[in-house]
Amino acid sequence: QVLLVESGGGLVQAGGSLRLSCATSGTERSFTMGWSRQAPGKEREFVAKISWSGGKTAYADSVKGRFTMSIDNAKNTVYLQMNSLKPEDTAVYYCYADNYGLGLTVYWGQGTQVTVSS
Questions:
Q1: Which residues contact 14 (CB under 8 A, 6 or more apart)?
Q2: Which residues, 6+ apart, have CB-to-CB distance to 12 below 8 Å?
Q3: At 34, which helix (H) or strand (E)?
Q4: Distance between CA 49 and CA 95 in Å, rounded?
Q5: What is the pLDDT along the chain (118 residues), one digit of tens a residue?
Q6: Consecutive H or E run containing 53
Q7: 3-state secondary structure of 87
């Protein structure tokens, strides 16, 4: 069974930084790990992803250059370092695990709130 537990959200001023963590269990090297977010009244959107096996990353244009996703294989934890935060980054951030990266079998965490004040 795959279990994902996010932490690290909170309230920060614009320009500040936060690091989100996603502790995982039950995932294997075939998984692609990622973060999505959902702001009030908006659709859930892709933020970043990384492969367990090779560490290859991809980012949404809106966060490129500001957010960095990384992986700690020893701790089975993925991270999202968020710098230069903007009010429009305010959302609930969800960690996900996508088996083989195909979008067919995807597991989600419970989400963590990030609020950026102007």
A1: 85, 86, 87, 116, 117, 118
A2: 18, 85, 114, 115, 116, 117
A3: strand 31-38
A4: 9
A5: 999 999 999 999 999 999 999 999 999 888 999 999 999 999 999 999 999 876 789 999 999 999 999 999 899 999 999 999 999 999 999 999 998 888 889 999 999 999 999 9
A6: none
A7: helix
